[in-house]
Design a protein that fits this description.
Elements: H1 18-33, H2 39-57, H3 59-64, H4 68-81, H5 92-105, H6 125-138, H7 158-168, H8 174-189, H9 207-214, H10 216-223
Helix pairs in contact: 1-2, 1-5, 2-4, 2-8, 6-7, 7-8, 8-9
Length: 227
């Protein structure tokens, strides 16, 4: 593919039935966006970025925000690859209709459906947020107040880490933790670890995702009484 990902979102792609979800989402997206100039050049990247968001965050969550995040994802990819394309014909309600159409068939496709089949969700939100800070300090992503390297601005990213840690306690592989990490950052900030779709490290494993993985057993223990 001409405009592709580089070692990003590799975990779900390795699953046997991923291709069915991918092809269906591509089919639906083509029916909504296929007439846009050069859409074929970004379709694969758009689909590969969107499937993890649908799977880990859920279509309902994306719809809750009037599909603005999906709209922004599309615009970001388009600007990276189709600089001369005029976006006046793109409207957010088109992306809401696109997600609603996808939701109609989502039960038939494993990776167009919400991952959390167990239904285990966070109930004690206050303690969850406290545990997130303790855990981020434990694994070294955040520096404890008063220690060398501490800065108040680290807490700016609490929303993203709350979302990441709310998902990864279901994970059992480093590559999946890494995929969740990238998915959340792409969804909320429009970038992966400070750059758009960069090469990353081998298999695109990011250092902070590895730090989360190295202490994941401790996080799962901390989560036991919060579900």
């Amino acid at each position: 593919m001409e405009y592709g990902l580089k070692n990003n979102f590799t975990f779900l792609k390795s699953k046997d039935d991923y291709v069915f979800s991918f092809n269906k989402l591509s089919e639906i997206s083509r029916s909504f966006f296929g007439d846009f100039p050069d859409y074929d050049k970004i379709e694969e990247t758009f689909t590969q970025c969107l499937i993890p968001q649908i799977f880990y965050l859920g279509i309902d969550s994306l719809l809750k925000h009037s599909a603005s995040s999906v709209y922004n994802l599309f615009i970001k990819i388009k600007r990276e690859n189709l600089i001369n394309y005029n976006e006046k014909n793109l409207e957010q309600n088109t992306f809401e209709s696109f997600l609603l159409k996808t939701k109609e068939v989502s039960n038939e496709f494993a990776y167009l459906n919400y991952y959390n089949v167990s239904g285990h969700e966070i109930r004690n939100h206050e303690n969850f947020h406290k545990n997130v800070q303790l855990y981020l300090e434990l694994c070294g992503i955040w520096i404890r107040e008063g220690e060398e390297g501490w800065y108040d601005g680290q807490y700016e990213w609490g929303i993203e880490y709350n979302a990441i840690l709310n998902i990864v306690y279901h994970c059992n592989e480093l590559e999946e933790v890494n995929e969740v990490y990238k998915t959340v950052w792409l969804h909320w900030t429009g970038s992966v670890h400070g750059s758009w779709l960069g090469e990353g490290e081998p298999k695109g494993i990011l250092p902070k995702a590895k730090m989360i993985w190295d202490h994941l057993d401790q996080w799962k223990e901390m989560m036991v009484n919060l579900r």
